[in-house]
Structure formats: C-alpha cells, structure tokens
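Task: sequence design from structure.
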C-alpha cells in the first residue's frame, strides 16, 4: 500500500482558490474545443498552449492533494438522506390520491418490476404503514448529497432517487415531481438544483448543466406528458474530462454501471452536456446498459414521464468500487464491470493463456506507448528484451476506436505501460492476466496504487510495479542531484498540484534493463502459476 503518511500533512487545498478562478474559464474552453473534436480522433497540433493548459487542468483535478492520514479509509457510513414516505403526507392525502388517480394514465401503471430493487424494498416495507392504494402513487425522493471520502474528495457526487409522478421537460431543464406533501430536500421555491455529473469537482461543475427538480403540489401544476415511459430514467451529464479514457470510465461509465446494471437494460438514459462523438464512441456500452435509444437532454422538446428514476449517478472511487448499502447495494465489483465490458464489446477471453510445457504458444505482451509526456525512451530495448524472454510483443497507442483497442488488450496476457490514462485499458484484460506499471520518479506511490495498482488487484489481475530510480528519469537532466526533486520529492507534493503536474508528470523514463529484467521475469512467472 502507498504510505498515507505522505499525505498526512494538512496541505492548503489548491482547489478552492485555483479552481474558483479557473473553473469557468476551463468550462468555457472545454466548450470551445469540444466541437472541434467532433468525429476526429485527433486535435491536429493546433493550439498547443490550450492543450497544455487542458491537460494541466485534467491532472490538477485527477489528483487533488487534500489527503490526510485517513485518506485510505473508506467512509462507508450511509449517506445523509431525505426520504419522504407518503405516510408523512398531511391529512390532504385522500384528496391527493384522487387527484393522482385522475391524471394517471392506465398505460403507465407503475411498473414495479422495473424499479430499482432498493425502491421496491422500501415500498414493500412501508406499505403496511400507509393507507391502501397509497403505495402505488406515493411520492418519494432520496438525495445522497453529503457523502465524504477524504482521500477522494470528488468521489461522492450528489444524486437523487425519485419515485412517483416524474415529468421531465428538458427544454426547461426541469424535472417536475408531483409531491403533494411538499416534503423533501427542497428550497423555499420547492426546488432542488443538481448538476448531475458523477465527479464532485468544483473545478468542473460550472461546465455541467444544472437540472432542477421542482416539487409541485398536483399533476395540474406540471406540464402534460407527451411521452410516457414504462421504465425508470437516469439523467446525467457527460461533461468534464471525458475523452480521457480514465475519466470516461471513472466519471461516467462505471457510475452508470453502478446505477443501472441491475435494471438489465430496462432504463431510459437522458444525457446532458451531450457530445455526439462521445455517445457514438461508447455506444456499445450504452446499448448494453439501456435497451432504449439515449435522449439528448440538451435538444429534446418533449415532456417525458416516468414513475421512477435518478438525477445524477452513484460513484465510488476511481477504478475502485466497494459494496455500499445505498450506493452499491448490488455489491458490484470491478470483476463484474470487466465482465460487462467483455460482453458489450464481444471480447472473447475471460482468462489468459496458461503456460505449460506442452503448449508452444508464446505469452502475448502489449506495450502501450505514450507519445506526449512520460514516454518510455528505450521502448525498443524493452521490447527486444521481452521478446528474448519469450513474449510475443506488440506495441500500440490507445486510439479513438475503443472496441478495436479493447480487442487488442483482451488478446494480451501481459499489459505494460508507464503510469498514465492508458493503463485504464487493464479493464479489458482477461481475468488473471498481468499488469506491469512503470512508475516514474517522484514518490508517486499514492497515485500508482490508487489509480491502477489496487484496481488491478480488484479486477483479479496479477500486478507488477516497477519504480524508476533517479538514474532512469529525464528529471536528472533538468535538476541537479542535490535538488529536492531527488532529495525530498515529497516537497513537490507539498507544493500542490501545479508542481506535480509541471515536474513529475512531464518526465520521460529510460529503464535500466539490468534492474528491470527481474520484473519482466516476475510477469512471466505469474502467468505460470
Ligand atoms: C451486499 O453485501 C452485504 C454485506 O456486505 C450483504 O448484507 C447484502 O446482502 C449484499 N447484497 C447483495 C445484493 O448481494
Ligand atoms: C543498472 O542497474 C544496475 C543494478 O542496479 C547497476 O549496477 C547499474 O550501474 C545500472 N546501470 C546504469 C547505467 O545506471
């Protein structure tokens, strides 16, 4: 495990100051460049400064050094929630029932089979306490907003779960919620505003469309349904750092999996901050999670009616997910996520090749090449040694075609790369395969472990990590050996994210083959067990 003491010093969180200043600008800039990316895998070498700025911003938010000694302790306490059972409704309830019956279309009988299991349980549990017939029409809203996971301050985004008469008017960015009692987490105007992005990151939130849940006392106060859905809804945003493969998974796809997988496709997705290229890129996964075409919340003109749904998504740590009574009640694991990905992309291999005397097949190694920062400068040399040790080596850069790259990764028995988003591709490896992470200089233990090492273990991969020495980094060409970069790299962390991004994240590495070879042998060895 990474040493948490490294982060025990209370460091001034760079977020609030830098974030507040940059947030809107970043949002604007993201908005500005996104269309350019439309349909193109590459942003041609233009605006290098902007790209540098963006990657800086991304990194800044990936690693927020606000950790303390409890950083590695998962807070598993149930969230502070507001549940509004119908039993709390004032004496107007009988009238309410009548009203609600009046407006309820027989076609849209609450389809209990499609409700999230948790909701169903609650309703069953509460049914005896409520008056007859109330269970079918009761309005219920539960918002999980105050969860905190110290080491991962962005890990507990707000999410509301609703059941009852829900009418979504994307054009007004509003979810009308027929809620006769008025109870719930609403302000004086009967509103609850949420930016439904699964990363609680002040830096990003200004760029996320805000959606209002509006509590109305009767169906008459809500717009008429123009489209009724017999399945629950999830309204969420794909803003933020999407198009960085790590963030595609941590900020959207895994949260969506946690929130909807148990519905087995019987769910309608409404996406805001809609990016056609992003939706297209991940269509195989979206289709696996929802049997219905996604709806573009930013453009849609209808009033969509539902009996249940979520605004926002549940999210855990990045590539680490744990059981939780409300956020992950189905106890999904990363192994489940891997299986889901394999099925969605039709990836054939669940297990790596087993090496034995009688099989002549060479174990396959895929080396992910980085072209920007953190390059492996002697990649050729590494590759030749791997060949010499008996691996069949391919070298590739992760590209825009996710399925194609997923197939290449799934075909590998060993995946090797320098620390970076490319390592996220471990999610496509067959269970039991080996991940080799080369960790650059600069006390990167926390990041190496929490972003890729522990996830690999959770995915039941074999994991080998190699920490480069000061002889193996290009930082030695930039800083004298007696500089704190070498003598006390924790000082870089102490300076906050800008220093980490500028110094640590921008080095290249050249591994010492003598030192590295035993780690390759270990990778080979792991495959034989
Ligand atoms: C999830 O795990 C908890 C204990 O960690 C257990 O009580 C619960 O029944 C599990 N739920 C499911 C759906 O397996
Ligand atoms: C490579 O590592 C070996 C073993 O640690 C060491 O003896 C050797 O001096 C290193 N080579 C270079 C060029 O640093």
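Answer:
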């Amino acid at each position: 495990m990474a040493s948490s003491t490294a982060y025990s010093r209370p460091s001034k969180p760079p977020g609030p100051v830098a974030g507040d200043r940059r947030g809107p600008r970043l949002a604007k800039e993201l908005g500005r460049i996104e269309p350019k990316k439309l349909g193109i895998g590459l942003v041609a070498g233009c605006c290098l400064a902007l790209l540098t700025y963006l990657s800086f911003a991304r990194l800044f938010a990936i690693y927020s050094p606000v950790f303390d000694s409890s950083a590695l302790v998962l807070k598993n306490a149930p969230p502070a929630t507001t549940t509004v059972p119908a039993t709390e409704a004032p004496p107007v309830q009988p009238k309410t029932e009548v009203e609600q019956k009046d407006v309820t279309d027989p076609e849209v009988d609450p389809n209990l089979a499609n409700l999230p299991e948790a909701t169903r349980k609650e309703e069953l549990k509460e049914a005896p306490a409520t008056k007859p017939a109330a269970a079918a029409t009761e309005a219920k809203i539960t918002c999980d907003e105050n969860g905190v996971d110290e080491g991962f301050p962005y890990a507990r985004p707000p999410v509301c779960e609703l059941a009852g008469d829900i009418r979504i008017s994307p054009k007004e960015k509003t979810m009308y919620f027929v809620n006769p009692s008025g109870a719930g987490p609403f302000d004086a105007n009967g509103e609850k505003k949420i930016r439904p992005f699964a990363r609680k990151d002040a830096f990003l939130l200004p760029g996320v469309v805000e959606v209002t849940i509006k509590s109305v006392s009767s169906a008459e106060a809500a717009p008429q349904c123009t489209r009724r859905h017999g399945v629950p809804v999830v309204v969420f945003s794909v803003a933020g750092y999407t198009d960085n493969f790590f963030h595609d998974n941590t900020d959207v796809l895994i949260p969506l999996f946690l929130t909807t997988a148990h519905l087995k496709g019987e769910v309608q997705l409404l996406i805001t901050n809609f990016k056609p290229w992003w939706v297209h890129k991940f269509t195989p996964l979206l289709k696996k999670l929802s049997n219905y075409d996604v709806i573009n919340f930013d453009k849609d003109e209808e009033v969509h009616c539902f009996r249940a749904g979520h605004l926002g998504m549940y999210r855990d740590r990045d590539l680490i997910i744990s059981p939780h009574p409300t956020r992950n009640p189905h106890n999904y694991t990363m192994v489940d996520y891997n299986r889901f990905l394999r099925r969605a992309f039709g990836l054939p291999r669940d297990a790596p090749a087993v090496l034995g005397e009688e099989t002549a097949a060479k174990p396959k190694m895929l080396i992910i090449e980085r072209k920007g920062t953190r390059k492996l400068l002697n990649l050729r040399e590494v590759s030749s040694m791997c060949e010499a040790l008996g691996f069949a080596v391919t070298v590739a850069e992760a590209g825009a075609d996710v399925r194609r790259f997923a197939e290449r990764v799934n075909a590998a028995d060993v995946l090797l790369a320098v620390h970076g988003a490319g390592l996220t591709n471990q999610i496509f490896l067959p269970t039991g395969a080996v991940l080799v992470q080369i960790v650059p200089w600069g006390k990167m233990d926390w990041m190496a472990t929490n972003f890729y090492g522990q996830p690999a273990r959770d995915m039941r991969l074999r994991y080998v990590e190699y920490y480069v020495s000061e002889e193996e980094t290009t930082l030695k060409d930039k800083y004298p050996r007696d500089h704190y970069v070498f003598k006390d790299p924790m000082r870089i962390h102490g300076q906050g994210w800008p220093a980490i991004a500028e110094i640590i994240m921008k080095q290249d590495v050249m591994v010492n083959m003598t030192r590295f070879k035993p780690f390759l042998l270990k990778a080979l060895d792991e495959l034989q067990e």
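The chain is about 35% helix and 15% strand.
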